[in-house]
From TrEMBL:
Stated name of the protein: Putative mRNA 3-end processing factor
Family annotation (PANTHER family): BLL1145 PROTEIN (PTHR11203:SF49), CLEAVAGE AND POLYADENYLATION SPECIFICITY FACTOR FAMILY MEMBER (PTHR11203)
Species for this entry: Algoriphagus locisalis
Cited Gene3D superfamilies: Ribonuclease Z/Hydroxyacylglutathione hydrolase-like
InterPro entries in the record: MBL, RibonucZ/Hydroxyglut_hydro, Xnuc_lig_assoc
Chain residue ranges for the region called Disordered: 322-341
Coiled coil: none
GO molecular function: RNA endonuclease activity
């Protein structure tokens, strides 16, 4: 990158020198714009935080009483002559893309994003720009998502089948984002929905913003016979833990984009894999880039080598920048309050 670029990458994060502001910095800074609440993007230690209103309850729940300012979608804020605005990323609740404009030059940092409307978070918004900084977590042609409705038909059919066999269904997904997406689209006519403490806590934070089904927290007092035949939503960190003993007999399922890879289910020792990601697949990435009309693309976290090489082959000025973002991995905060059950 050139030092004259509107956004540069340094040891602390993605930096706008003209505004002296960082976007999703991974080391403590004075001024941070935060795209969403996952722990690799929203970190403790910054003096001032700027994020979308709907993300404030999430990051305060995780980071404590931070100095945070909230703004709405498409609400411009001018910092030292640079115009910033937040736009829906469609990744999880409150997730934003950051549009940065200075003297007619427009950059967009997508953060993590997906283009399918999941019925939970504000859908992805296309932004025209000159330079696009994009994730490529699933930047391989092998990743091609089914429509969400099809996946949830499979999940609810699996639950119903397990119930008929007298088994409890345990479904694993991220505490923030994936768990709420799962809860939203489960069929409560099949049975009750139980939750791990970490899922219940995060969902409680988000209930004021979301219409969610009734859930039942699994506590130490919860008996196995109460749970049998019903659905349990839990973080992947709970898999294989003593917490699961009271649920025998059970079947386990994992919701992740990685389930598209042959062998991923057996490596995670789960009975069923459902391909459900909160990130774009290969076509989603390419379609977003093309629609943005960007000529320059900077690839971060994911299959950066393969994806950027392909972009160069089809005519883009594409490069790679390293970050401390992790893409779709277990969110470290998912273990919070796991001792509740």
């Amino acid at each position: 990158m050139k030092q004259s670029d509107l956004l540069i990458f340094n040891s602390k994060g993605i930096y706008c020198p003209k505004a002296q502001v960082y976007i999703d910095p991974w080391r403590p800074v004075n001024n941070a714009i935060i795209t969403h609440g996952h722990s690799d993007h929203a970190r403790f230690g910054h003096k001032k935080y700027l994020t979308h209103h709907s993300n404030i309850p999430i990051i305060r729940h995780r980071l404590g009483e931070i100095n945070v300012q909230g703004i709405g979608w498409n609400e411009p804020i001018l910092i030292n002559g640079v115009k910033f605005s937040l736009h829906p990323a469609g990744h999880i609740i409150g997730s934003s893309q950051v549009r940065v404009e200075y003297k007619g030059e427009v950059w967009v940092f997508t953060g993590d994003y997906k283009t399918e409307d999941d019925g939970v978070c504000t859908p992805y918004e296309l932004i025209k720009c000159h330079t696009m900084i994009t994730e490529c977590t699933f930047g391989l042609p092998a990743f091609k998502w089914k429509p969400q409705a099809t996946v949830f038909e499979e999940i609810n059919a699996w639950w119903k089948s397990n119930k008929e066999e007298g088994k409890t269904s345990i479904l694993f997904g991220y505490t923030l984002g994936k768990a709420q997406r799962i809860l939203k689209h489960l069929d409560p006519s099949i049975g009750k929905i139980y939750t791990h403490g970490a899922v219940e806590n995060m969902t409680s934070v988000l209930r004021p913003q979301l219409e969610m089904p009734k859930t039942h927290l699994i506590s130490k007092e919860t008996e196995g016979k109460e749970i049998r035949g019903n659905m349990v939503v839990a973080p992947t960190s709970a898999h294989g833990s003593p917490w699961m003993r009271k649920m025998v007999p059970f079947e386990t399922g994992t919701c992740s984009g990685w389930m598209a890879f042959r062998g991923a289910r057996s490596r995670r020792a789960t009975d069923k894999g459902f391909v459900l990601s909160d990130h774009c697949d290969w076509q989603g990435l390419l379609q977003s880039i093309k629609a943005s009309e960007a000529t320059r693309v900077i690839c971060t976290h994911g299959y950066t080598d393969i994806f950027s090489k392909y972009l160069r082959e089809i005519g883009y000025d594409a490069s790679i920048e390293n970050t401390d973002y992790e893409g779709e991995k277990e969110d470290s905060s998912a273990t919070e309050n796991s001792q509740l059950a």
